[in-house]
Amino acid sequence: MSSLFRGPYFDYVMSQEPLCSAEYFAHGSSAMLFQRDGKLYRLTTDGSGHNFLSEQSASGNLTVVHVIEDFGAVAPNDECSDEEYYWLAQVEWLQPLDPESHQGMRLKELFSELTEDDVVFPEQREQFIRLCEDAVSTHEEWGPLLNTLIKAAKYLSELDGIVDANITNVMIRPSTGSVV
Known about the structure:
Layout: H1 8-15, E1 23-27, E2 31-36, E3 39-44, H2 47-58, E4 67-76, E5 85-91, E6 95-96, H3 102-114, E7 119-120, H4 125-138, H5 143-155, E8 163-164, E9 171-173, E10 178-179
Antiparallel strand pairs: 1-2, 2-3, 3-5, 4-5, 6-9, 7-8, 9-10
């Protein structure tokens, strides 16, 4: 297993339900995915991102992953145990968007218009939001996704957190073919 996290708190989380007999599936920059009994679990150290996805899913936003069960903060983060936590949720299965497909290429082009390097830092957020708002009218097919990016940028605290507008974070919902 390629592990993004290490330490006694991580080991504790992995020894508890529902992850105690789960298999590693994949990981990103701040989250690991595990599968067990046909279910997919997302473990992350990004509390803001976890809470944003959970709240947006609960409110019916179809351009975020559906959170089936939010376990919340399950243990202190091994790297910053005084301030941060591991967050766990069961999420729906999605399919990757092929970045070389026609749809993937168009979305990569749009993201390059919105950011310099896919990452939006706090001091860049205001401009990013304006660019996304402008793009909603010129890229109607991406309107729901752009509106979610705007919500994500506004959700973060003023001085902390980044928006990761990267094609690798975009998936396809198999049941509808919609971009998430």
